[in-house]
Structure formats: C-alpha cells, structure tokens
Design a protein that fits this description.
single chain, 348 residues, mainly alpha, 3-stranded antiparallel beta sheet, elongated
Length: 348
C-alpha cells in the first residue's frame, strides 16, 4: 500500500499496476468473493463458503484495525515510508484489495518442509491457469520457485498448473475460480455428542479412544460419499446408546463397537437423511435450475462461478442422501420404527 501511494516513483510500480488490473481475478476473470457486494454474495446462499468468506473478511478487518498498534510499537518498520498512521493513510477498502491481490499470488508447493509450503508468485494469476488434475507444478528449487511442466508447450499456448490439494471453496476464495474436475473437492459434516446426555463423559472417552472428538468434522470427498456416510455411522450410533449397561459394554470393548438394534439403525439413518435434505433445502435453486443457469452464455461471471460451486456441493449432498437411502432400503425389516433419542447427536 505504501509503495502504491508513491505511484510511478516506486520501483514496484509496473507490478503494482498489474496487480491493480487483475484485482485478484482468477482465470475466469472473477474477483475473489472477498470483494463481492452483499447482493453478489447472495449467489452463495446455502453454501458454507458464504460463511467462510464472511469469516475471512472479518479476519482482514481485525488485521486492518491492528495496523496502528504495529505502527506505534514497531515504528522502525515504517521509517522508509513518509506517511502517517496507517488507517489514516489507507482506507479499509484499499487494504482489503491489497490483501486479495497478494492472496491470489500465493501458491501451494509440494515436497518441502511445512514452513516453506507456500510461496508468493507475483505473476502467477496473469500468466498461468490453475487446475486440480494436471501434472505441471510449481516447485521450490533452492531459494526460488520454478515451473516444471509435464509436456512441451507451443508459443502462445496457455500453461496449466496444478493448484495444490484445495477444495473448490478455497479455490474460489483464493483465486476466483472453481474446478469441475477437482478430485480434492469436499464438504464438511460436523457431528457432536449431546452435552446434555447423562452419559456424555463416557461417550467422550469412547470417541477419543477411537481417534475422534466430541465435536467431530467428517470430510466428505467428491466421489467417496458412501464411504463418508459409513464412516459417520459408528459415531452416530454411539450417540443413540441410552442404556447404562450397554454403555458399560461399549466402554469395556475395543474399537468403535456398540450394540446396534434395528430401531437404532433406522433412527440413525433417518437422522442422516433428514440432515442431508435440510442442507439441500437451504439452497434457493435446484440442480436442474443450476444447469439451466449455466447453459446461459450471457450469465454474469460471478453468478456463473457461484452457481458452479453450489452445483458441485449439491451433487455431493445428493450422493450422500442416496447412499443413506440405499442403506435404509437394505434394512431387513422396514416395519421397525426409529428408536426415540432424547440425546441424539447433533449434526451441523
């Protein structure tokens, strides 16, 4: 921001001018949703990405508000800049634009220590296109970052680079695009033991013994929805145990084992199906309506990338719902009613 204020006198002027032209836009010419208006963020209604954007924006605001403290406590860092208190010299919108511009140039490196996992590649966004399933990648070589391609390129041909193992929510926030073929795409299902359950502490011990938490995030990866639902079942079944003698049996056993009655299994699967239906109903459009929107060649670019994202999220949720329904259909007795569950686990 300080260098930008010096204009053409700054050594970095050509680069800053390019960053301003890009405004954090990705390969689809879309800015990060951190710069979208409130009406544009409504395109993400129903998606957990909207909450991520708002949370990230709040974090940027907190950093901006702390600039003056840094200025007062570490003034030597700013001696070369002939300007006053940062928040008086630069409004928040300028700070946020600068944050997004720098964020769009951060790349994910592989086969390096964690401290060197991320690097700043200033000309990445204007010169490269990112994808999740290609083999060309940016690699750390000594103190530099080199582009290692997987095949010969002709002059003028666009270079496509692997963007790291990031879900589409992160690709949109960081780079302004969504990858339809992203094998790293995922949604999170958060399950929690009911703290009002008289046996909460015992259940907490059991889940910790099996590598889980009392508030557990289950990652549902695209194409592996059935496996994810199966992974949730032992955790949810434990939440439905109400008999103290059964709980003692679970405590004395090894592994995530608890008695499974037909009515408990039906209750667990019904809860999951209701949960996935509830999440799907939170979107203002259906999958068919999303497909119709995306077929419009004149669709607003921001609306297009947002619709791509929510469409892929809905596909994951529909696959989870279908996997759950299939498990219900496989139950041996469909006349069994779900068990009552005053302290059922919570799904978010």
């Amino acid at each position: 921001m300080y260098e930008k204020k010096q204009g053409k006198k700054s050594f970095w002027y050509p680069y800053i001018r390019e960053l301003d032209r890009q405004r954090g836009r990705g390969q689809l010419a879309v800015e990060s949703p951190l710069l979208w208006s409130e009406d544009e963020l409504a395109y993400l209604t129903g998606s957990p990405t909207k909450a991520e954007v708002l949370e990230r924006a709040e974090g940027i605001k907190r950093e901006y508000n702390e600039l003056d403290t840094v200025w007062f406590m570490a003034g030597s860092l700013f001696q070369q800049y002939p300007y006053d208190i940062p928040t008086e010299a630069f409004p928040f919108e300028i700070f946020k634009q600068a944050f997004v511009a720098v964020q769009s140039c951060v790349v994910h490196l592989q086969k390096v220590p964690l401290a060197r996992r991320f690097a700043l590649v200033p000309l990445g966004p204007p010169l490269l296109a990112y994808r999740s399933n290609c083999k060309a990648m940016l690699s750390a070589v000594g103190g530099a970052v080199e582009l290692v391609v997987d095949r010969p390129y002709k002059a003028g041909e666009p270079i496509v680079v692997w963007c790291g193992p990031q879900p589409n929510s992160k690709l949109l926030i960081n780079y302004g695009f969504v990858d339809d073929d992203n094998s790293y795409d995922r949604l999170v299902v958060e399950a929690a033991l009911n703290t009002e359950d008289p046996q909460y502490q015992d259940k907490r011990l059991v889940v910790q013994r099996n590598g889980k938490l009392s508030i557990q995030a289950f990652h549902v990866h695209a194409g592996k929805e059935k496996e994810a639902v199966s992974d949730m079942l032992p955790y949810l079944r434990l939440g439905y145990v109400s008999d103290p003698s059964e709980m003692q049996s679970v405590l004395s056993s090894q592994g995530p084992v608890c008695p499974v009655s037909p009515c408990m299994e039906r209750a667990v699967l019904d809860q999951l199906a209701d949960y996935f239906n509830r999440r799907l109903s939170g979107y203002p459009t259906t999958l068919n309506e999303d497909e119709s929107l995306l077929s419009d060649p004149n669709l607003n670019p921001k609306r297009r990338v947002a619709t791509q994202l929510v469409r892929l999220e809905k596909k994951i949720l529909h696959a989870c719902l279908q996997a759950t329904i299939d498990m219900i259909d496989e139950l041996p007795d469909h006349t069994v009613s779900p068990c009552p569950a005053p302290y059922a686990p919570l799904l978010k």
